[in-house]
Predict the structure.
Amino acid sequence: MQPKPAQRYYWKKNIRLTLVLLAAWFVVTFVAGYFAAELNQFSFFGFPVGFYAFAQGALIAYLLIVAIYVRYMNRLDRDWAHESIPGEARTRFPATRDN
């Protein structure tokens, strides 16, 4: 069964958001970790900045990533889904949009 244009639009938006948030996760986890030694040259309240970046900053960033995903997907669902006839797929997506 071929997906309808509305379904393709929904999943295209979902996958795009997922890839952007995975890129943010990668940057927070690995790229910032690569520069931890340079960040540890500076101190904040007697502790190295690299410590704060990973002990506190990474956790906050992960929570923000989850919150952004939840908020965006709830908005996408609310904007495009509607009550449909029982047994029929939800198809209130614009059929002509390619975004």
Observations:
- The radius of gyration is 20 Å.
